[in-house]
Amino acid sequence: MEVCDMAEAARRLSALAEQVMGAPLPLRLRAWDRSEAGPPGTPVLVVRRRALRRLLWKPGELGLARAWVAGDLDVEGDLYEALDLLAGYFWERGENTGPTRRAAAALAALRDPALRAAGRELLRLAGPWTPPAPPPEEARTGRRGPLHTLRRDKQAISHHYDVGNAFYEHVLGPSMVYSCACWSDPGDTLEDAQRAKLDLVCRKLGLRAGQRLLDVGCGWGSMVIHAARDYGVDAVGITLSEEQAAYARKRVAEEGLTDRVEIRVQDYREVHDGPYDAVSSIGMAEHVGSARYAAYAAGLYALLRPGGRLLNHQIARRPLADESRYHVDEFIDRYVFPDGELAPVGRTVAQLEEAGFEVRDVEALREHYGLTLRRWVANLEAHWADCVRLTSPGRARVWRLYMAASALSFERNRIGVNQVLAVRTPESGEPGLPLRTRDWRG
User: Fold this and answer.
1) What confidence tens digit (pLDDT) does each residue in 53-83 have?
2) Distance separating alpha carbons of residues 253 and 86, to the nearest angstrom
3) What is the DSSP letter of 137?
4) Nearest CA to 297 among 361, 349, 237?
5) pLDDT digits over 375-387, tens only?
6) How far apart are CA 192 and CA 161, in angstroms?
7) Cβ distance 118 to 74 under 8 Å?
8) Contact call for residues 190 and 369 (beta carbons, < 8 A)
9) Which PANTHER family match (predicted)?
10) Mean pLDDT, the chain, as a whole number?
11) What does the domain layout of the chain look like in residue ranges?
12) CATH 1.10.10.10 matches 150-439
C-alpha cells in the first residue's frame, strides 16, 4: 500500500479515536509529524506511526502494550495523571466489557478486507501493512500447554526476577524487599516502612528463638535475615530465581547467619522437610494460579506443626458477578508476571479454610501498596540511565508503566493487598494466639 504523508495527523487520529471509542481522547495527542490535537494543559500522548500498525495487527491490550514497550507510545508530563485520564477510556473497572473491548472489536473489523474501505484513513495513517515484530522483552514462557508446571513456573519467575540484581537494587533500595511496605506515616523512608512490614509479619507469626520458619518466595532474603537476626529462628528461604538465591546467600553470609539461614532454589511443591513452626508467603501466592491454589494451601498446611501459623500476604482483585469473565491483562501477562493470576480475598480465605486452616486475622493494606509503588517509581526515575543500561530501554519502560499503573489501581480500589493469618489449629482447639490479635503492632 502506498503511504500518503498526511499533515495534521494528530487531528485526524483524534477524530478516528473518538469515532471508534465513542468519546474524545481525554489528553493531548502529538503525532509523528509533530502536529498536536486535544485538550490543552493535559499530559501529552506521543504516538509514532508504528503504534497504529501494532494496534491494527493486535487490537486491544496487547497492541497497546507492545507499542508502549517499544517506545511507539510515550507520555510527556505527569505519567500518573495521564494513566488516570486514560483509565476510564481504555480500562473500565468491573466486567471487562468496557471501551477496550469495543476498540478491539472495531479495530479488528478494520482488518477485514470487506470493511477496509471504512478504515482507509486509519490504514493510510498507519503506513506499510506489515506486522511489527514484538519487542524482545515479551515473555517467552511457551504459550501452549498446561499452566503452572514446575518447568513453566520456573521460566515465568526467571522472566520477572532474573533481570539483574543491580537493577532491583536501584528500584527497591537497600531493603531489597519486593512487596508492600507498612507505613506509619507517608513521610517515612521506604527502608523504615519495609522493616516495619517484616517485623509485623514476624510478630503475627509469633516467632521466637529456636523455631523453624519457611519463607516461600524468599526473594533476596530480607525476611529470613530479619527473622533469624532479630527473632533467633532457624529459617529456610525458597525461590525459583537463581539470581535471587545467589544474592540472598551472599547477604546471609555477610550477616554471619549461615548457621541459621538456608537459601534454596526450590519450588514450594518440592519442600518435604517439615514440620515448620511458621510459614511466611509474602507476595508469592499471585504466581500460584487458581488451578493450583488448593494444592498450595494444602501443601503449606501439611508442612506446619499443629499450632503452626501461616502469614499469607497477597494481592487481591475485586470480585466479578461472573467469575468466568476474569482475564489477566495482556500487558501484565506478556511483560511483567507471565501466568500470574489474582483472586478476590474472599476466595483466598475460603481456600485456606478448605485446606484445614483456621483463619484468625485479615488485614487490608491497600493504601500502603500505593505509597510503596510510588517510591519504587521515584527510585526508577532517579536512576533511569543506570536502569536502562543494566536491562534495556524496553524493560525499564515496562517497570515504569507497571508500577505507576499499579499504584493508581491500589489508590482507586481496583485491587487490594491483604495479610491473612491462618493457623493449623491443634485438636485441642487452642491455637496459642493472643486474645486480642490486633495487638500485633504494639
Assistant:
1) 888 888 778 888 999 999 999 999 999 999 9
2) 47
3) T
4) 349
5) 999 999 999 999 9
6) 23
7) no
8) no
9) CYCLOPROPANE-FATTY-ACYL-PHOSPHOLIPID SYNTHASE (PTHR43667:SF1)
10) 88
11) 9-126, 150-439
12) no
